[in-house]
Specification:
Blueprint (H helix, E strand, L loop, with lengths): L8 H17 L4 H5 L9 H12 L5 E7 L5 E8 L7 H15 L12 E7 L8 H17 L2 E9 L2 E4 L4 E3 L25 H12 L1
Parallel strand pairs: 3-4
Antiparallel strand pairs: 1-2, 1-3, 4-5, 5-6
């Protein structure tokens, strides 16, 4: 049998304190992330493998990447998370600084075309943590300020990789995996071969 009780003043104060703490830390709960309409990756394994091969992340390493509509990598950067309490505001600033360093913003577009995804290598298992929630908040806000679509948030642990909010993951690569060759999806598009003088000029420009 279940009884209902009016919340006590102490319980109300505790709930308010919890909400204030979450707001101060600026984090997203898994349900909020799932409800945000984050676009699904068509081939998350190739994206994860490509970023792992390029940046070889170890625990406390964040990899921010920008994908075009065909999920080809256009820019990426990695950095080490500072040993400080997890806070979405700080994470947002760190991600935005990296985005501004590697790719121009798309704020002049009517709607975002490119998508930013975040791969974070950390200790522990694949279950959501408050640190993940802070990264999610930071990624979403950084994308808004840089004119990008907010894409997937992926954790990389010693158990493997996991796209949070989607339930998709795999055992390889993982946090201790050796570097692998770049995935095809991460390679830049080849220079078209048209033949003649134009083709020769393009080949010389690419070689510089």
């Amino acid at each position: 049998m279940t009884f209902g009780f009016a919340p006590s003043s102490a319980a109300s104060m505790s709930t308010s304190a919890d909400l204030s703490a979450a707001s101060a830390n600026r984090l997203l709960e898994p349900a909020e992330w799932s409800a945000a309409g984050i676009p699904l990756l068509r081939n998350p394994r190739e994206v994860v493998s490509g970023l792992h091969a390029r940046h070889q992340p170890r625990p406390a390493t964040a990899v921010i990447a920008v994908l075009d509509p065909d999920e080809r990598l256009r820019a990426s950067a990695s950095f080490i998370r500072r040993p400080a309490p997890a806070d979405g505001w700080m994470f947002r600033n760190a991600l935005l600084a990296q985005l501004r360093r590697v790719i121009p913003h798309d704020l002049r577009r009517r709607a975002p075309v490119r998508t930013a995804v975040l791969l974070y290598c950390r200790d522990g298992d694949a279950r959501w943590t408050e640190e993940d929630g802070a990264w999610m908040w930071g990624l979403r806000d950084a994308c808004t300020l840089h004119g990008l679509r907010c894409g997937a948030y992926i954790t990389l642990t010693r158990d493997g990789w996991q796209v949070l909010g989607e339930g998709r993951g795999g055992r390889r690569p993982h946090a201790d995996s050796p570097a692998e060759p770049f995935a095809t999806a991460m390679a830049p598009p080849p220079i078209p071969r048209t033949g003649g003088v134009a083709s020769e000029v393009l080949r010389r420009a690419a070689a510089r």
